Amino acid sequence: MKRIALLTACLWLGAAAVAGATELQWWSHWAIEDNKKVVLFEAKRRFEAKNPGHTVTITFYEKKNMFTTLRAAFTAGSGFPDVLYYDIDAPEFMQAGWMADLSTAVRWENIEPYGKAFWTRPGPGGKTGVWALPLEAASDELYYNRKIFRQLGVTLPASGALTQEQFKDLVGKCAKAGYAAFATGAADRDWAAHYMPNAMLLDKLGSEDTLRLFKGELSWKDPRVVEVFHYYKELIDLGAYARTLSSMTLAEAHRYFHTEQKACMFPVGSWYTGRAFVPQDKGGQPKDFELAMMNYPLMKDGKGHNQKFLGVAGSLGAAAKSPNLALAVKVVDAFADVEIGNLWMAKTGVQTGIKTDVAKIDSPFKWYFDEYARVNKATKWVDLTAQQVRLQMKPGVWDTYVAAVNQGLPNKLIGADEALAKLEDARLKGK
Amino acid sequence: MRRPRARRPWGAIAIFLGPTVVLYAAFTIYPVLVTFYNSLHTLRMDLGMLYEYVGLEHFREILTSDDVFWKAARNSLVWAVVAPIVDIPLALLLALTLHARVPFARVFRTVWFTPVLMSYPVVGVIWLWVYNYDWGIANLVLRAVGLGAYAQAWLASPLTALPALILVTTWMFAGFNMVVLLAAIHAIPSDYLEAASIDGARAWQRTLRIMVPLLRPTIVNLVILDFIGKMKQFALVWVMTRGGPMWGTETVATYVVKRAFEWKTLDLGYPSAIAVIWFVIIFGLSLGLTRVLQRREALEF
Amino acid sequence: MPRRLARVLLLLPVLAYTAFSAGPYIWTAMMSLRTTEEIYRSHYAPPIPAHWAKFATAWNEFGYATYFKNSLIVAVASVLIVSLIGAMAGFAFGRRRYHFPLREPLFLLIFLSIMFPPQIMLLSLFQILVQYRLFNSLAGLTLVYVVTELPLTIYLLRAFFAQIPTELEEAARIDGCSDWAMFWRVMFPMALPAVATTVILNFIYFWNEFLYAVVFITQQKIRTLPLAIQFLVSDQYQDIGMLATGLMIATLPVLVLYLFLSEWFVKGMTAGAIKG
User: Is the pLDDT of residue B190 over 80?
Assistant: First the structure.
């Protein structure tokens, strides 16, 4: 009798679980990054195993389209996902009250403190919350093609950093040999061509003044800034960028660098590996490609030698107005796990804001981690990345920074002085 | 014979026109009025569509200090003016050629008309490939005929991007315009043309001189249609360049959508004001164009 | 024979334009049968061997089945509704019997809205659809499509109804036809050829529409084909081969129909231009 009652109870519970089954929607960036997808699917699997009856459907986007679509959907209050990829490209989502506060529902003990701190910000009505889980962390790196360097007879010092004269020489050599110096493609990212100028400004001004510059407290006519821009313009005139710069997408730029091998270097976020370390037929780098890393050039009298930008990148959040918020947060929480952190590192080669247990990471990319550690041995990290500069700048200045420095200057449409004049103009407008 | 005046069949009128009037009022007139109303407010999407009255402030800002708007307006206008100038003479030329009884004329007509049946996203993707620097058809052809020095990334410079997009719309619509003109040519009474179809060096000239005035109403229609279409251009730009580089292909239509859903201002009021300005301009120019072109026609005949 | 020679010489520019006109699409068609790897090796090689299976892959794995279905639902529903409502209104606007004061101004108002740029309604329609919970639904999109093509449809059909002789109407009325029967049994069947042209015109427009779709649809499972292609371009830009296959799926049905019914298509598509 008792057994039958128990059985009935079980059946009833099972039925209830099925009746209350929800299909969660999860929108994610990383449409073409299969190794990141592996981690996402593992988290999904864990969530579904722990919450029987509930399922998650992941839809992949390229994020520019995703954020545009999300703005419309959130405003409309319908057609938005429960769980979403989130990063600092759309900072207004937090204050708009579209992101759920995760401060109590996630096992933060498994997240690096800097990662949690990054997403701890004022939300709607100024109330502070934690708005996303920092899945990906990345630094602004400078990769190079070792084979081409060998061909050109270029050798790097142990520090991996050339002086500004040596670096100019290198750019000239690349151009003369028919290569672009940088494999940048700015078609679908507002900040793709910002890596070089950002890094050189940081090296010249040091972190404090660079931030002041971005915030509008320091003039773009500051002689040090002018010097950096003029030097940068010399590199551009030597043929630093591909002619296809502004019609090339980020994904194509990767291909340009590692498959077509038409560029010496690639200044880009250390999430480079996310796209590159996948099978070649999925857009990954060829087996025999000789990837190596170096440091940005040392500017004359620079105050920021050895400083480099590092920050939280791709993250995960939940929609505040999701009808299944509790479950959505559980999906996010599935990532707050050292095992997931390890899996992320092992699969993607990208840093993560999740705590990891390095000893347990078994990855074919060990050599890469060593290379990364070597080039960053002396690095002093500055909490900002090319993608996050937008946060520091006023909207009008940012728009100009994109138009002038991501498009105009590297395309040789305008000169250094004109770019700076536009920026100073925007700064003084104060919008 | 005059029938006694029947009572007006109001019931039937209501049935036949009811759905149209209701739909039209609710989904055309009302939205237009709402847009006008919105243009006087900021309308915060993040605060549950919170209205705040700002009067004509948006209009002042757009007209006095919004450089992007002016760039977009200029691009749209250039497109709307250049496209008919290129499309329609080309279409006329094609139509006259087919009219001259080129063999397989039907086949050519069928083929040339095809592009207009495709959607802008499809066309946009195909032409992104055509303009690819390394392996696109455009540069392939240039290199093949020894003009490799002119090969370039067509969508990468503000100087070439807009012309490149205009060429795409020409590709789409030249065949369409050609077919319309061809139909108009066929409708011309044949004795007019008999006189012109004598062989000789001046046959073409004569054909043109006789035909073009007769085709005038059709040409006027096509010009206006082309003009309005290009003033509204959105989809091709959205798929191919998103308005870049450096606003070189930004149109008013793309700028409205960007200000609404891509900017972090999250304000629907400002883009509504842009839409109102553009509405007035398109409407004014279209009516003006119709007037001018059709009046001249009236004078000539 | 110089005349014959001239005609042959004319063929040269004609062929050149044909290459320009058809080249890009044929190139895409070739790529649609090749894998991306093959394409990157040589962009212009013929599709040998032809990978027909790619169409099945695109259809099943890349969601084209869904997008195709959505496009078809929206286009067919919109065409049916706009044809019926447009014919009714065109009939009432075109026949003397239904004249009433303000009828002509009303018609003029509707006619003028053909010139409206869509932006003037885009954002407020967004608001309205949200209000009535029609945002993110194929029904909402259908409604918007019907409204946008209604003016042109009415305009074209009114012209047709206006030129049907009155005698016919009177004869039918003596037989005791009600107004509705007059329309539905007598006039509408007579107008079918004219309706068919608007059906084609509208169908192509609905099948290809992008602006409203991109603003009013955010969910993947209700994307229409043009919208899906826009997303796939950025999501899978590198997978040129599969994208080309998708483009063929989006265009082939219309193009095949066009091959068989090209006269009707030409008539339909140019109807607005000739009379406008």
Answer: no
Judged by CB atoms closer than 8 Å, whether chains meet at C85 and B224 is answered as: no
Please tell me chain C's helix, strand, coil percentages from 3-state DSSP, rounded to the nearest 5. 80, 0, 20
C17 occurs within a structural domain: no
Domain membership of residue C200 (yes or no) is: yes
What's the rounded mean pLDDT across residues A108-133?
Answer: 92
CB of A388 closer than 8 Å to CB of A398: no
CATH superfamily of B66-300: MetI-like (1.10.3720.10)
Nearest to B184 by CA among B161, B216, B208: B216
User: In whole angstroms, what is the distance from residue B13 CA to residue C96 CA?
Assistant: 11
Is residue A366 included in any domain, yes or no? no
Question: Total domain count for chain A?
Answer: 2
Residues A169 and A265 in one domain: yes
pLDDT (0 to 100) of residue A243: 84
- CB-CB contact of A133 with A345 (8 Å): no
Q: What is the pLDDT of residues C62-114, one digit of tens each?
A: 889 999 999 999 999 999 999 999 999 999 999 988 999 999 999 999 988 88
- Is A290 within a domain? yes
- The yes-or-no verdict on residue A8 having pLDDT over 50 is no
In chain A, % of residues over pLDDT 70: 95
Q: By residue range, what is the domain housing residue A47?
A: 20-136+313-361
The tens digit of pLDDT for each residue in B137-176 reads: 999 999 999 888 888 888 877 889 999 999 999 999 999 9
User: Residue C67 belongs to what domain range?
Assistant: 53-275
Average pLDDT along chain A: 89
Nearest partner of A267 among A302, A305, A240, judged by Cα = A240
Whether residue A422 sits in one domain with residue A300: yes
Per-residue pLDDT, averaged over C182-199, amounts to 91
**Is residue A114 located within the same domain as residue A219?**
no
Is A264 in the same domain as A410?
yes
CATH of the domain at A239: 3.40.190.10
What is the nearest CA distance from C79 to chain A, expressed in angstroms? 26
Question: Which residues in C lie closer than 8 A to residue B268 (C-beta atoms)?
Answer: 123, 126-127
- Kindly state whether residue C64 falls inside one of the protein's structural domains: yes
User: Which of A121, A105, A74 lies closest to A322 in space, CA to CA?
Assistant: A74
d(Cα A293, Cα A370) in Å, to the nearest integer? 11
- Which one of B42, B43, B45 would you mutate to disrupt binding with A, by most A Cβ within 10 Å of its Cβ? B45
* Mean pLDDT value of segment A133-153: 94
Whether residue B244 is predicted with pLDDT greater than 80 in this model: the reply is no
Our CA dihedral for C13, C19, C21, C25, rounded to 10 degrees, sits at 180
Cβ–Cβ gap C121/B110 under 8 Å? no
- The upper half-sphere exposure of residue B28, i.e. CA atoms within 13 Å in the direction of its Cβ, equals 22
**Three-state DSSP class for A319?**
strand
Decide if B97 touches C, using CB distance below 8 A.
yes
Band (B203; pLDDT cuts 50, 70, 90): low
Q: Shortest CB distance from C124 goes to which of B38, B98, B101?
A: B38
Distance CA C39, CA C55 (A): 16
- Give the ipTM: 0.91
Instruction: Give the neighbours of chain A: at least 3 Cβ pairs within 8 Å.
Output: B, C
A73 and A127 in one domain? yes
Q: Are residues A278 and A412 in the same domain?
A: yes
Q: How many Å apart are CA B222 and CA B227, to the nearest integer?
A: 8
Same domain? For A216 and A145 the reply is yes
Per-residue pLDDT at A14 = 43
**Structurally, how many domains does chain C consist of?**
1
C231 touches chain A (CB under 8 A): yes
Residue C81 belongs to domain with CATH number: 1.10.3720.10
Measured between CB atoms, does A33 come within 8 Å of chain C? no
Instruction: State the smallest CA–CA distance between residue C233 and chain B in angstroms.
Output: 7
**Predicted local confidence at residue A11, as pLDDT:** 44
Q: Do the Cβ atoms of C135 and A32 come within 8 Å?
A: no
Nearest to C234 among A62, A72, A283 (CB): A62
